[in-house]
Amino acid sequence: MRLFVAAELTDEMVEALVETQAGLRDTVHGRYVAPDSLHVTLAFLGQVNHSRVGELTDVLYEATAATEPIEAMLGPLGSFGRKSSAIVWQGFQEGSEELKQVAARVRSALDDHGFAFDRKGFLPHITLMRRADLSCASLGMAHVAAGTIDTVTLFSSDLSGDRPRYEALERIRLGAPERDW
């Protein structure tokens, strides 16, 4: 199964991100990420044998045990890649350092337990659009919202349909005194 670990966003943050996407639609063409798929990827694992999901869940609980919820505020827009086929994302004004710390703990724990993951540098962001044509457009202004990021989730992703489908396999509450069994 294709897996990744992500921080989930508050409803207010998702609403602001959707408003930002709406403001881009007239000038930037590409594949917009569906509102129910907006998140901050902490680690992308790719294909993981189903038999290791339980172990992986234990590793994530261990990695996030001492992590408190993160006070965050959405920030400016940015892009990766070529102007003709870019990824458009929104970053954070507040909470970036804390997200970097939790990503580092998750990645270190994955490494310690032999789980392979994409080792690209971590930049806290939410992907708003893929294959964006920015050759004749500017990104404009981002809508901003603040909230408490309090959940790290192990997701599976299915790419077989018209858009990626994500399923939460395990949700881990940050700052929770112990694991819910």
Structural description of this entry:
The structure is a single chain. With 181 residues, the protein is α+β, with helices and mostly antiparallel strands. The chain has a single domain (2-173), classed as Cyclic phosphodiesterase (Cyclic Phosphodiesterase, Chain: A, Alpha-Beta Complex). The chain is 24% helix and 37% strand. The chain is built from three helices and nine strands; from the N terminus they run E-H-E-E-H-E-E-H-E-E-E-E. The strands form two sheets. It has a five-stranded antiparallel sheet, sandwiched between helices. Strands 3-1-8-9 form a four-stranded antiparallel sheet. Strand 4 (70-80) and strand 5 (86-94) form a beta hairpin. Helix 2 packs across helix 3 (96-112). The protein is globular, with a radius of gyration of 16 Å. It starts with a strand and ends in an 8-residue tail after the last strand.
Largest sheet: 5 strands, antiparallel
CATH topology: Cyclic Phosphodiesterase, Chain: A
Total count of domains:
1
How large a portion of the residues is in β-strands, by DSSP E?
35-45%
Kindly name the structural category: alpha+beta
Low-pLDDT runs of 5+ residues are: none
Helix/strand order:
EHEEHEEHEEEE
Shape: globular
First CA to last CA: what distance?
23 Å
Radius of gyration: 16 Å
What fraction, in percent, of the residue positions are helical?
Answer: 10-25%
Number of helices in the DSSP assignment: 3
